[in-house]
Model the fold of this input.
Amino acid sequence: MPSGKQSVGGVHGNQATNAYQFILGIPFVQSQHVGGAIAANVIGFPINGVEFVPMPGFDVLLGRDVICRGSLTMTFDGHATLCL
Done:
């Protein structure tokens, strides 16, 4: 359920869109069992976010408010590491 409206600027100008408060959970894998189950610690971050129409293949767009909590490393071979 939206917590209110927020103005968002884009290629079509500013538009009021639904705003949400949620918890972003990031799993940090500790081990993987033979059957495929994964044991992980999950760290949760409270986030304020706005609704957007994602492009195919995307579920969420992380902003600098999340990425700046740690260090994001991306390489040219398609790998990325987020350290928090």
Q: What stands out?
A: The CA atoms of residues 29 and 40 lie 4 Å apart.
